[in-house]
């Protein structure tokens, strides 16, 4: 009986307790809609994607488009903000980098979090600088009294996900909205801050899903500090979990939703509430990431829900578009069967 109760408590806490209110449920339909908006940020005109994503009764009106000079990788930090009066909703969308895959992985990937973020912990200096340069647009839109009761969605793909991961807690921190009014879904987001930032973020943003795709390399960067007390089992690929107490390296905020497969309709996914918290070792951290062979990891980064995100956005989210397949298929298939064919690993 006692065992059963302990099991039950563990289950209930594991599913609902630690990660905020029970209403923070991952909704794939919502995630797919937000991916379209994140993709649209790669286009000079978000309108075609907006029109294809929302029915006429839920029309989204463009409030602001912004593009400012940013340090990261010499690219602008860009995005747009839309509002729907019917849904009483504002959506803030940040663009990822337009540079090629090689450049994507340069500059920010080795930096430890070192910049204070309004007392919420340390974050990456590149991302913080991008945040500062775009914040004014977010602040202006959310301060408009006309929209003061509107909920706020924040989204972005890749480095746009990093900017979303900073803007969202700042919105609550600055009192522009309350925690329950802000919802975040990002795609292929890198680690934006350290463990302290992660904990502060989770307090402020209980409705937050960080969607990751198979071996997408970007969520593994900048690196976390590995938990050296862990011994990889014989026959494993030697992958190590993140240290759940070190504040020294990068550390993700909540909550990962990992798709080990190709993310087409019906593709299985995992809600990553396992340990270490926010760096669940049975999700994308389980397979060892080969930083020397980034071909597949970059392909997985650019492709979410069956579309190549930047190209899909530039093409106006046209559902008839087709995209190049992955460099090899075997990796993906074996990943799915290795994840769903075994028990979840205990840490
Ligand atoms: C999921 O999101 C979609 C789109 O916003 C919405 O229509 C639907 O009701 C949501 N489903 C649940 C179970 O909340
Ligand atoms: C995606 O994976 C599923 C299941 O493994 C497979 O049936 C389907 O053909 C794949 N689709 C693409 C476009 O690769």
UniProtKB/TrEMBL annotation:
Keyword set, alphabetical order: Signal
Position of the signal peptide: 1-17
Gene Ontology terms: biological process: lipid metabolic process
Start and end residues of each Fungal lipase-type domain: 92-225
Top-level taxon in the UniProt lineage: Eukaryota
InterPro entries linked: AB_hydrolase_fold (IPR029058), Fungal_lipase-type (IPR002921)
Protein name as it appears in the record: Fungal lipase-type domain-containing protein
Species for this entry: Caenorhabditis nigoni
